[in-house]
Amino acid sequence: MPTSDAVMKRGLGGLVCMESLSTEYLFMIGGNGSIPTKYQSQYQYIQLGNGRICTNEQNLLNLSTRQWIIPTISGQCCPPTAAFAIQKITNNKAVMFGGSVPSDDDRSDRSVNIVYTCQLESDTTIHWESVKGPVVPASVQWPVERRHHAITSIISDSPTLVMIGGEGNDGQLVNDSWLLNTSQYQWSKIVLPEFVTGRQDHCLSSIMMSPDCVWLVVVVGRGTREWKDVGRGYKEPFSEYITDPNITMLIELGKNSTIL
User: Fold this and answer.
1) How far apart are CA 45 and CA 23, in angstroms?
2) Across-strand partners of 194?
3) Pairwise CA distance, residues 207 & 91, whole Å
4) 72-97 tens-digit pLDDT
5) In this predicted model, what pLDDT tens digit does every residue of 144-192 receive, in sequence order?
6) Residue 51 or residue 55, greater confidence
7) What are phi and psi of 54, to 5 degrees?
8) CA atoms within 13 A of residue 184's CA, in its CB half-sphere
9) InterPro entries, from UniProt (predicted)?
10) Residue 153: C-alpha distances to residues 163, 169, 217, 222, 234 (Å)
11) Are the beta carbons of 26 and 17 closer than 8 angstroms?
């Protein structure tokens, strides 16, 4: 795969496949990484206290020509963000939720709970919209801030997203699960077993068995973060990987399921 100095080397970002004019692209967004070789003027780059750079840089890889494109952006683009979840809902549109953004002093980061949509309008333009800010009425169900969570889609007349787990601003597991209706962008909380939701850095996918039955597949992840003494008065965060028998979980969602 060809590389380009115009593309910042980074991790903890997002990657989805999109289509425009019958051409497929890989869309890469955000993340933390090393100092970029080239700064793109339309994006933001913020250096954190650990020396890493948090960005909202966006790149398109044309899967036919294997060429990288630096797209222009319009609308309400997300700030520099890492450890979020992003999921495609149509051929050219995706939904992004949560993640960590630089704090006001730019030295550390904090989790957020904002929904964004991004749409590939052409082979060079991405349009962004902020669906709703972090402050919502108490009567509206809305997930708390989180990062390192996972999202997948349930294909139906109106694509619905399922979100599980993650880590909150207090460094502890969020330990919940939600459905997001992408036609009206309304959240509803669902109840899943704690051994399913109590994880971060995990993978989540769905298998459509019938219009009324979907299986969720939850794989690996990490448990609760703990601080361990590494000597000389310093402590570092550490979390154990999920182990047997909970490494891979199958969960049924359906009209006749006790989960819903």
Assistant:
1) 29
2) none
3) 19
4) 999 999 999 999 999 999 999 999 99
5) 999 999 999 987 667 899 999 999 988 889 999 999 999 889 899 999 9
6) 55
7) -100, 135
8) 5
9) Kelch-typ_b-propeller (IPR015915)
10) 9, 25, 12, 22, 41
11) yes
